[in-house]
Write a structure and sequence with these properties.
By secondary structure, the chain is α+β, with helices and mostly antiparallel strands. The chain contains 24 helices and 34 strands. 33% of the residues lie in helices and 28% in strands. It has an eight-stranded mixed beta sheet with strand order 1-3-4-2-5-6-7-8, with helices on both faces. Strand 27 and strand 28 form a beta hairpin.
C-alpha cells in the first residue's frame, strides 16, 4: 500500500532508488473532475490525513484561498512511497488546477513530469480543459498518459444507466480521449489508453474505490461486482476491496515511464542542444554524475510569511546544498542555502538531489521556467550552455486592472511586491504608467488578477480598478518606408514594417523563438520551420511580445553604440501602440540603413528614442492598422431540446456557433465569442437551461474588431488620450525623407 516513510527512508529513496522505481507524474483534468479528491485519498492511505476527511478536506489545496473557493489554484507537490510486486517505488506527484485561469501552473508541472494521469468525469465526459490539458501533456511536453474515469457512480445514480449502457458510455469517452492522444502524441509512440491493457481505470475518488481489468483479475472478481455493490449501497465494501490508491499507483507504475525512459524521447523535444555533447549525454541518460542542468518549475510564496520556495527538477547532474547555480535567463549566480524535497507545504531537508527528481530550495527568487547550470563554471563555459525550450502557455493576458498604492510613498513597494508574485505566475504581466504611477496588471481572466491583487494587498494596501479587456494593435499590410532623424538632427534611421507570417508568430508565442536564444539556434528554427532566409534570421536584434526587430543594414559604423537605446525604445513602443496605447503584436520591423553620430554626446537615449519611436509609429500607421480583440472558444453541453437557448445566448453576444454534436441525451455546442462578452455568460447558460448546462471556455486567439472606431475612442477616453485618431503629421518634425 501507499505510505509516507520516515525522513531517513525518504532521503534513501530519493538519492539511491534505481530509475525503474521512480515515477514523476501530474494529475490533470477539467475543473471539478476530481484531481484533488484523488490526491486526498493517496494521502489518506499514506497516513497524512484522517480517513473520514479523505475526499472532502482538500489537503492538497493547502492555501486558504483555495479552500475558500473550493478550487485548486496552485500546483501542489507530494512525495509518496508505494510497495508493489515486492519492490519499493517512489512517486512524486503534482496536483494541478483545472480552471483556465491557472493553466500556467499545469504547463510548468508537466514540464517537470514524465507522465500524466488524466481524469475525466464519467458524466460530463471530455470538456474544454480536458482537451487543452491532453494537448499540453501529450503534445507539448511529451508526457505519456493514463486515464482514470472518475465519478462512475453518477452514471447510475443520476443517469440510471444499465450495465451495458454504462460501459458503452465509458467506451465513447475513452475513444474521444484516444482520438486526441493519437492526434498530438509523438509519432510511432503508440500511446493509447485502453481498458484491455489496464491503462484505463474506473472509479470514484470521492468514495475511494477504483478498478481496472488487472485489479479485477488479481482479486478474482467480475466487472459486474461494482454494479451489484453499488445497488446495495455497499460503498465500504468497494473502498475496502477495490482501494483507489492501489489501482491508480499500479497503473502509473505499469504504464508511465521512469525518468531514464522518458528522457530518451522528451529531452530531444524540450532541449535544443547537441545530444552528443557532454551535457546532451547527461540529459539523455539522466546522469547524476553529468553536468548540472535543471529547471525552476514553480514558485510557492507562503501567504503568511511571504517567503518564497522554489520547486524544480534536476535533469542532469546532482544539486547540492551550498552549491552556486547560474540562472541563465536572469544571468546571475545564486547560492542554494537550503535544499530538500517538497511535501505539500513542508520541506524535508536533504544534502543533495540527483537527476531524475523534483527538489525545493530557499534563499532566492527567480521567475518560474528558469534554466540553471552550475555557478562554479567559468563564464565562457556558461555562455556555451543551452537552456531548455521555453514552456508553452496556451493563454495570453486579455484582461487588465489598474492598481495603485493607497499611500503614495508605497508606489515603489507595490512594484516590488507585484514583481515577486508575477515570478510565481508569469502568465500574468504588468506595466507602469510613468505619468500616474499606476500599475497595469494583465492576466488570463478576472479571477487570476483577483487572486494576485489579494496577495499583493496582504503586503501593501492597494486600490484596484474594475477589470478591462486588453486588445492588440496589428498591421494588415506592408508599410511605407520612412527615414527619420533624431531631435538634434545628427542621427537617422530607415525602416519599414511587414505583417508577420502566422507560422513565425506562432513560434514566438510557443516560446520556440525568443530574444534570449543563441543566435544560431534561433536562426535554424526560423529557417527550418518558418522558411526564413538564413542571413536575415541571423540578423534579428530583438523578439518581444509577438514582434521581431531585424537589422538589415550592411557595414554601418557605430551602430552597436545605439543598439541598447534602440531596442529599449522599440520595446516601450510595443507596450502601447498609436491607435489606443494597446499592445502591438505581429509586427516584423526591418531597418535597412542608419546614421550614427561619432560623438556620443549626440547619441543619448532621448535622441535615439525620438528617432526610433517616430519611425515605428509612422510605419505602423501606414500599414493599415486594425484593433484586434481576444476571442474565447466556448464549449457547452446541454440536455436535448435546450440547444436553441444556448445558441441564442451565444449569438446575442456577438458569437458564432462552430459545431454541434449529439452525445446521448446531451447536445455539445462549441462556439466562439469576444472575451468582452463573456462576463456573466455562465449564469446566462445556467438560467436558460434551468442549471443543467455544463460550460467551459479557452483562449482562441485575436480577431479584428468590426467597426472599431468607437472602441478605440472609448479606450482613448479611458486612458485620457486625445479624442482623435492618431495623425502621421504628428511626427513630421522627425522625418528626414520619405520613400514609398
Amino acid at each position: 500500500m501507499v505510505r509516507v516513510k520516515n525522513e531517513q527512508e525518504i532521503v534513501e529513496l530519493v538519492t539511491k532508488s534505481p530509475f525503474e522505481n521512480r515515477r514523476i507524474f501530474t494529475i490533470t483534468a477539467h475543473i471539478d473532475h476530481g484531481k484533488t479528491t484523488m490526491a486526498d485519498y493517496l494521502l489518506r492511505r499514506a497516513g497524512l490525513m484522517r480517513e473520514q476527511d479523505a475526499g472532502h478536506l482538500g489537503m492538497m489545496d493547502s492555501d486558504a484561498e483555495e479552500q475558500a473557493r473550493g478550487i485548486t489554484i496552485f500546483t501542489s507537490v507530494v512525495l509518496l512511497a508505494y510497495e508493489y510486486g515486492g519492490k519499493e517505488y517512489i512517486a512524486q506527484i503534482n496536483d494541478t488546477p483545472g480552471h483556465i485561469s491557472f493553466t500556467g501552473e499545469v504547463s510548468r508541472a508537466l514540464r517537470g513530469s514524465d507522465g500524466a494521469l488524466i481524469l475525466v468525469d464519467a458524466l460530463e465526459g471530455m470538456m474544454t480543459q480536458t482537451e487543452t490539458n491532453i494537448r499540453l501533456a501529450v503534445g507539448e511536453e511529451k508526457c505519456k498518459p493514463v486515464l482514470f474515469l472518475n465519478k462512475a457512480d453518477r452514471l447510475i445514480s443520476e443517469l440510471r444507466l444499465t450495465q451495458k449502457d454504462f460501459y458503452q458510455r465509458l467506451d465513447k469517452i475513452i475513444n474521444s480521449v484516444n482520438r486526441l492522444i493519437k492526434e498530438v502524441a509523438p509519432k510511432d509512440s503508440g500511446w493509447v489508453c485502453d481498458f484491455k491493457n489496464n491503462s484505463v481505470a474506473i472509479g470514484s475518488a470521492k468514495d475511494g474505490w477504483g478498478f481496472n481489468f488487472k485489479v479485477l483479475q488479481d482479486k478474482g472478481l467480475k466487472p459486474d461486482i461494482f454494479f451489484k455493490k453499488y445497488m446495495e449501497n455497499d460503498i465500504l465494501w468497494l473502498r475496502k476491496n477495490l482501494p483507489l490508491d492501489d489501482v491508480v499507483l499500479q497503473m502509473v507504475i505499469d504504464h508511465l515511464p521512469n525518468p531514464l525512459q522518458a528522457a530518451k524521447y522528451r529531452i530531444p523535444k524540450i532541449w535544443p542542444g547537441d545530444l552528443e555533447s557532454d551535457l546532451g549525454k547527461g540529459l539523455f541518460n539522466s546522469d547524476p554524475d553529468g553536468p548540472l542542468l535543471g529547471l525552476i518549475l514553480k514558485i510557492y510564496i507562503d501567504p503568511k510569511s511571504f517567503r518564497p520556495t522554489l520547486i524544480g527538477r534536476v535533469f542532469s547532474g546532482t544539486l547540492h546544498a551550498g552549491d552556486s547555480i547560474y540562472l541563465m535567463g536572469r544571468k546571475e549566480r545564486q547560492k542554494i542555502k537550503r535544499l530538500g524535497v517538497m511535501e505539500i507545504t513542508d520541506i524535508l531537508d536533504m544534502d543533495h538531489v540527483p537527476a531524475g527528481n523534483l527538489f525545493a530550495v530557499f534563499g532566492f527568487i527567480c521567475p518560474a521556467g528558469e534554466t540553471f547550470v552550475s555557478g562554479e563554471l567559468p563564464d565562457e563555459q556558461i555562455e556555451a550552455m543551452i537552456p531548455f525550450e521555453q514552456i508553452k502557455y496556451v493563454c495570453e493576458p486579455v484582461v487588465s486592472q489598474s492598481i495603485r498604492a493607497k499611500d503614495p510613498k508605497d508606489v515603489a513597494k507595490v512594484g516590488d511586491v507585484v514583481s515577486k508574485w508575477l515570478m510565481a505566475d508569469n502568465t500574468a504581466k504588468f506595466t507602469k504608467n510613468k505619468d500616474s504611477g499606476e500599475y497595469i496588471l494583465s492576466g488570463i481572466d478576472p479571477l487570476q488578477i483577483e487572486i494576485i491583487t489579494k496577495r499583493v494587498n496582504m503586503q501593501v494596501p492597494i486600490i484596484v480598478d474594475d477589470p478591462i479587456i486588453v486588445y492588440r494593435e496589428r498591421i494588415t499590410q506592408n508599410s511605407s518606408e520612412f527615414h527619420t532623424k533624431s531631435p538634434n538632427g545628427h542621427n537617422r534611421l530607415l525602416m519599414h514594417f511587414e505583417p508577420m507570417d502566422e507560422k513565425t508568430f506562432q513560434l514566438i508565442m510557443d516560446g520556440k523563438v525568443t530574444a534570449d536564444q543563441k543566435e544560431k539556434i534561433r536562426a535554424q528554427v526560423l529557417r527550418d520551420e518558418a522558411g526564413w532566409d538564413a542571413k536575415e534570421a541571423r540578423n534579428i536584434w530583438d523578439v518581444h511580445e509577438g514582434n521581431i526587430l531585424v537589422n538589415d543594414t550592411h557595414g554601418l559604423q557605430r551602430l552597436d553604440k545605439i543598439k541598447s537605446y534602440l531596442v529599449a525604445a522599440w520595446r516601450e513602443w510595443i507596450e502601447g501602440g498609436p491607435l489606443a496605447k494597446e499592445p502591438v503584436a505581429g509586427v516584423k520591423a526591418v531597418f535597412t540603413d542608419a546614421t550614427v553620430h561619432e560623438d556620443t554626446a549626440h547619441t543619448g537615449f532621448n535622441e535615439i528614442a525620438g528617432m526610433t519611436v517616430s519611425n515605428l509609429s509612422l510605419c505602423f500607421l501606414s500599414g493599415k492598422p486594425k484593433l484586434f480583440e481576444p476571442i474565447q472558444r466556448v464549449d457547452v453541453k446541454t440536455p436535448l431540446g435546450m440547444e436553441g437557448n444556448i445558441i441564442g445566448v451565444i449569438t446575442a453576444h456577438r458569437g458564432q456557433v462552430l459545431n454541434m454534436t449529439q452525445e446521448e441525451n446531451f447536445m455539445r455546442i462549441t462556439g466562439k465569442l469576444p472575451a468582452a462578452e463573456t462576463v456573466g455568460l455562465a449564469d446566462e447558460f445556467r438560467s436558460v437551461t434551468s442549471g443543467k448546462a455544463l460550460f467551459g471556455y479557452e483562449f482562441h486567439g485575436f480577431e479584428p474588431v468590426p467597426d472599431s472606431t468607437k472602441i478605440i475612442m472609448d479606450i482613448r477616453k479611458r486612458k485620457k488620450l486625445p479624442l482623435e485618431l492618431p495623425n502621421p503629421a504628428s511626427w513630421d518634425r522627425f522625418i528626414y525623407s520619405r520613400k514609398g
